[in-house]
Amino acid sequence: MSIKAPRKGENYELSVDLNSEYREKRKDAIKRVIASMTVGKDVSGLFPDVLKNMQTDDLEQKKLVYLYLMNYAKTQPELVILAVNTFVKDSDDPNPLVRALAIRTMGVLRAEKIIDYLCDPLQKCLRDENPYVRKTAALCVAKLYDLKPELVIDNGFLEQLHEMIADSNPMVVANTVAALTDIHIAASSQPSISPNDPALFPISSSILTKLLIALNECSEWGRVAILNALARYVAKDDKESEHICERVVPQFQHVNGSVVLAAVKVIMIHMRGVRREDLIKQLVRKMAPPLVTLLSSPPEVQWVALRNINLLLQKRPDILSNEMRVFFCKYNDPLYVKVEKLDIMVRLAGENNVDALLSELKEYASEVDVDFVRKSIKAIGQTAIKIDAAAERCVHVLLDLIDTRVSYVVQEAVVVMKDIFRKYPSTYEGIIPTLCANLDELDEPEAKASLIWIIGEYANKIDNADELLGIFVDTFTEESYPVQLQTLTAVVKLFLKKPDSSQGIVQRILNTATKDCDSPDVRDRAYIYWRLLSTDPGAAKAVVLAQRPPISIPRTTVAPALLEELLGEVSSLASVYHKPEETFVGKGRVGAESLQRKTDAPDDRFSTSKALQTVAAGQQAENLLDFDDAPAVEGRPSGLAATEVLSHTPAAANLLAGTSSNPLDDLVSIFGAPATPAPPSANSHDIFGGLGVNSTFPSGGTGSLGSPAVQSPSVAAPPLQKNQQPEDDLLGLF
Predict the structure, then answer these.
(1) How far is CA 401 from CA 231, 322, 356, 357, in A?
(2) How many angstroms separate the CA atoms of 485 and 513, rounded?
(3) Ramachandran sector of residue 578 (left: φ over 0; alpha: ψ -120 to 50; beta: rest)
(4) Structure pTM?
(5) What values do phi and psi take at 662, rounded to 5?
(6) How confident is the model at residue 86 (pLDDT cuts 50, 70, 90)?
(7) Which long-range contacts (CB under 8 A, 24 or more apart) does 350-355 make?
């Protein structure tokens, strides 16, 4: 019986092949190592074996070894030092590709031990006779600055970069500008940066001339870098602004969308300094075709272009005023693209193209995508609000959609009609019966709330308004909070407009809202309405039936100052998110460490003392919950100010010492027990400790607030619950 040899692993086989005497076998082994590394296998144990194959004349093999080094340099920093001699030797190689590869790899390794060996080869490569090596070395300076800024400044690399801006090769100029810009951004983020810091990259007139010369000869990456630098330049006068715009306009014809958007950014920034109206119109006219061309890109690029176009239209709506048809949605557009197109179509809508837009939106409302249908109907409403002359046509389209009896279409149309009624009050009252006829179709809170608002607003013109609202009153406690709030307000409006026929329903809803509803917002609103109606219906009418200003669509979705800032960030994430970069990059991000620092309390005892000082200071504050008109006794504090803080109690001592087992109970027990309240008067009840109102208000009666006699039907005040103790009052906690 033979004994089998122990099975060797894959790494062992690779190690054997890496040390083979045959060149092809070694090269094949390196390829297999890279393949394993690419799929996530750990081949860091082969580091010494791979490193042995670094010294070779085969450029392909050298690239593979460098790729391996870049991946595992962080995990094997001690072994990387063994490759330094080869790197230095390769930086003097006759082949410029090898020289550039060596300097680029040394810059990417980011190992502390190799940085000091990088300076001498980098000095030579920055002055290399081959432009490919020079442009690679320029970017290496930016990487070195990120690791060790003082090393870059001490070795004079920044001065060399500034000299390289005048290089005869445009690609060297572009990479130099990219490197200096990265260093400028890194230096600017430092809290105490001097304006004369050598790391800053101010663009002068001489640098501007060199950048404009190199612009047309660069690759697309280089053009973007130069255009971003031009966007930072501050023109001295309008002539210089015009010159920059004229030199940048040819970039609109570039095939790359990033170059086009970067050129648009430069034009938008420097157009601010142009005084000639004819030139501004010419630039705006030339901006339209490249933006339209971007819409033939893949969906992801389209979306980025649409977000930027949306921003541009907020500043200059005339850029694409004649190009609405290119934004019509295609059947295979993703939803995110369709939504952006809808927004832009509404922005471009005018009296000359509104018919085509409405026809298109009506088609979209018959799509299968529910979200898109809803947004299309909402766009019809926005068009009606934006263009007064087209409002009637929009309403007819909405009525046609309501006739389809499709649930989600009807509900969104009702929501939109509510906005149209707010914009054009008393104009389209004839369609209210149609809306009310679809009451049974509504099952979404927003649609229900919208129809209730319409019924309440036009209660005096709807004969059966009390019956319609009665449906919602019957199911009041089962409805969502927005519907409850809207029902409550609508019933009060009905009562103020038809007091004789609706006293019962308003009394019923106020009782339900104050006793059976678990939402504090609904209860508070009910108490306020009850108080108003029971004391001064005239004031209630002034509050509830107040004249509201008509709504309108804002021309911009961001503040004007922020819009100017975002236009300077076109083609970046800031212009896509429509937010400044600080909100999602760098200081705007909240890391785990900073979050921990924010949540760590400085000292519990200090915080407790501070809280007690605040309570003591509050003794001098007026009691905002005291609605009673009875004058306070002079010289005596009232309300919260009358609350005694018992700082000598054991509970207070425990709380201050930080040894409390139940801080909440101890905090409550610090306050003195409430004084025995005076018995309520025969004609008043105590609601929330201070809302004293009559139980009934017959015609000609007077309220407990000393208000004049009320000559209209009023609502009974909420009764006091039987055997209610003073401690049950809101302030009874203290």
Answers:
(1) 48, 28, 17, 16
(2) 9
(3) left
(4) 0.72
(5) -135, 85
(6) confident
(7) 350/321, 350/387, 351/387, 351/389, 351/390, 353/324, 354/383, 354/387, 354/389, 354/390, 354/393, 355/393
Contacts of 76 (CB under 8 A, 6+ apart): 44, 47
Q: Could you tell me how far CA 43 lies from the centroid of its own chain?
A: 42
Distance CA(645)–CA(637), nearest Å, equals 13
3-state secondary structure of 412: helix
Strand (E) or helix (H) holding 124 = helix 119-126
Chain centroid, CA 105 distance in Å: 38
Rounded Cα–Cα distance for residues 183 and 199 (Å): 6
Quick one: three-class SS letters along 467-508?
Answer: HHHHHHHHCHHHCCHHHHHHHHHHHHHHHHHCCCCCHHHHHH
Altogether, the residues listed in the chain come to a count of 734
Q: Are 510 and 719 in contact (CB under 8 A)?
A: no
CA gap 267, 209 in Å, rounded = 17
Q: 324: closest CA among 292, 372, 367?
A: 292
Distance in angstroms (rounded) separating the CA atoms of residues 572 and 32: 39
CB 498 within 8 A of CB 484: no
Quick one: DSSP state of residue 685? B
Closest CA to 487 of 518, 466, 462, 501: 466
CB atoms within 10 A of CB 221: 15
For 691, the token pair is: 């809302």
Query: What are 402-439's pLDDT values in tens digits?
Result: 998 899 999 999 999 999 999 988 888 888 889 888 88
Q: Are 240 and 258 in contact (CB under 8 A)?
A: no
pLDDT tens, position by position, 677-698 = 444 443 433 333 333 333 333 3
- Alpha-carbon distance of 204 to 193, in angstroms, equals 20
